[in-house]
Design a protein that fits this description.
The structure holds 2 protein chains of 2 kinds. By secondary structure, chain A is of the alpha+beta class. Chain A is about 55% helix and about 20% strand. Chain A is built from 4 helices and 5 strands, in the order αβαββαββα. Chain A has a two-stranded antiparallel ribbon. By secondary structure, chain B is of the alpha/beta class. Chain B folds into 2 domains: about 210 residues, Spore Coat Polysaccharide Biosynthesis Protein SpsA, Chain A; about 70 residues. Chain B is built from 7 helices and 18 strands. In chain B, a hairpin with a 2-residue loop joins strand 4 and strand 5. The N and C termini of chain B lie far apart (about 60 Å). Classes of the chains: A alpha+beta, B alpha/beta. Strand 1 of chain A pairs parallel with strand 17 of chain B, so a sheet runs across the interface.
């Protein structure tokens, strides 16, 4: 299907609000990872929290509200890597959609 | 020495239920979904269906790992047509896998995100929250004003376990006493909905509390009312093997925004994201490119 022609013929307007919400849904799900017996979201809060300690092991509340004893550095590395990769993808797709009218 | 042949139990797979109605060929939808499952999740699919539906997909049986023929329950009537959606509780006994994903055939697999569900729980999980494409602020559906938020049976992951078995047995009990539960929860009975059945069953098993690990921590994406989906490219069959496809994962979503009796067309594009198509005609349109 020639969707470009379809959009032009329908005089459709790009919905930036819906696109922004779609991107948030899509990439939020990708930020979730399971590790060391817990489920984690690779977000700024969790990464910042793990970074603020120097202990080797730490008990952290996971996404399911369970207190999980973790190897702090290992979890921090995994979350940082996930965060960096996913946020880069998110930014790149968002930039592409931003240009649409 | 006597050799004991161990029965090979496949660890992971997907289970689809498909019974053709007078209006739609659900078995054909299942073929398409099974191929996408193979392409994106790399998992085998077992189809639960009836003889009549099976006849309509005889050239495509290779798309399935296993086919289970059952006699469908025809007692659910919607818009003067039989809606073959009862019997989902049989997923536990029918699944040949230790870890199973049960999907609706109109769920469009576009990524490998569902593989994550196997890491979420040792027993069972399903969607609690939904996101409506082009309606980002849409409220979560409730069974009624006096009841729970609806859980969704569109995607269910379960692992063979006592607890998962209990959930499906409770689902059977709720299905058999659906009007009673409709009365208690103040929703309109008569037409059985798996989503409602699942919501009630899971709440009963959990003693009417919430167990966070029962819920997939991202939203089920729906294509709702006044919304159309157009594939940006057609699925390409790879010439070397008739069963291999290069599937399109980019779609244009078009929405009719009604305001003061006037319609304004809005659109957006999505890629690599799974979504559930409520409108079966839309799903058939996607299937046919």
């Amino acid at each position: 299907m020639d969707t470009k022609k379809l959009i032009k013929d329908a005089k459709a307007r790009f919905s930036h609000n819906s696109a922004k919400a779609y991107l948030k849904e899509k990439y939020s799900s990708k930020l979730v990872i399971a590790e060391q017996g817990g489920l984690w979201k690779a977000d700024a809060q969790t990464i910042g929290f793990l970074n603020s300690f120097s202990d080797e092991t730490l008990v952290v509340i996971d996404t399911f509200d369970n207190p999980v004893k973790v190897d702090r550095k290992q979890l921090l590395n995994s979350l940082t890597e996930t965060y960096t990769n996913i946020m880069t993808e998110w930014n790149s797709e968002w930039k592409g959609l931003e240009r649409k009218r | 020495m006597e050799r004991i042949r161990k029965k090979k139990i496949k660890s992971r797979g997907v289970l689809l239920f498909a019974f053709n109605s007078s209006k739609y060929n659900y078995a054909q939808m299942a073929v398409y979904t099974a191929r996408r499952i193979e392409a994106f999740l790399g998992l085998p699919t077992t189809l639960v269906t009836d003889v009549e539906s099976l006849k309509t997909i005889s050239p495509d049986l290779k798309s399935f790992d296993k086919i289970i023929e059952v006699t469908p329950d025809t007692s659910n009537i919607r818009e003067q047509q039989t809606w073959f959606n009862k019997g989902r509780f049989q997923a536990y006994e029918h699944s040949p896998y230790k870890e199973t994903l049960v999907l609706d055939v109109d769920y469009l697999v576009n990524s490998d995100i569902l593989l994550k569900t196997f890491d979420l729980s040792d027993t069972f999980c399903c969607h609690k929250n939904t996101h409506m494409l082009m309606h980002p602020d849409a409220a979560q559906e409730k069974m009624s004003a006096y009841s729970y938020d609806t859980l969704w049976a569109t995607v269910i992951m379960f692992k063979k376990s006592k607890r998962a078995k209990q959930i499906f047995e409770t689902l059977e009990m709720v299905q058999e006493n659906y009007d009673h539960y409709a009365n208690i929860h103040s929703f309109v009975g008569g037409i059985y909905r798996n989503d409602y059945g699942l919501t009630i069953a899971l709440k009963i098993v959990n003693g009417h509390t919430d167990v966070p690990s029962d819920y997939i921590p991202w939203s089920l994406v729906h294509v709702g009312k006044n919304t159309s989906v157009y594939p940006d490219q057609t699925d390409l069959q790879i010439p070397c093997d008739g069963n291999l496809f290069d599937y399109n994962t980019e779609f244009t979503i078009m929405f009719d925004h009604w305001k003061k009796s006037k319609v304004r067309k809005e659109y957006m594009t999505i890629k690599d994201m799974d979504f559930h198509v409520m409108n079966k005609e839309l799903f058939v349109g996607i299937m046919n490119g």
